[in-house]
Amino acid sequence: MCRLTSYCCEALVSALSSNSQHLRELELSDNDLLDSGVKLLSAGLANVHCKPEILRLSFCGVKEEGCASLASHMRELDLSFNCPGDSRERLLSVRLKNPYFKLNMDCGECRADKPGPKRYAER
């Protein structure tokens, strides 16, 4: 856990956009990125210079709006323990169209709305 928040995502996107064409995997799990941060991240990942194949965002407080903004060019997407809402159907349809796309959306009990360590307290 890096303790990143949605406020860090703009700087992260800027860094990724500069020269990250060789980046294949981005692990950001266990950070409080929330929908606002994931939307910024998604916009940055759409940059021609940065297209990772694997994105891990488990336990990032992502809900429907953030999930809906994610790029479909990923080969693997981990959204476990977030609350995708109706975006789950769109992501599952991407999965059906591309048999090589790996999607992890195990929500367990949705605790994405609880910040930091609180989301683990009731496990």
UniProtKB/TrEMBL annotation:
<keyword id="KW-0677">Repeat</keyword>
<dbReference type="InterPro" id="IPR032675">
    <property type="entry name" value="LRR_dom_sf"/>
</dbReference>
<dbReference type="Pfam" id="PF13516">
    <property type="entry name" value="LRR_6"/>
</dbReference>
<protein>
    <recommendedName>
        <fullName>SPRY-associated domain-containing protein</fullName>
    </recommendedName>
</protein>
<dbReference type="InterPro" id="IPR001611">
    <property type="entry name" value="Leu-rich_rpt"/>
</dbReference>
<keyword id="KW-0433">Leucine-rich repeat</keyword>
<dbReference type="InterPro" id="IPR051261">
    <property type="entry name" value="NLR"/>
</dbReference>
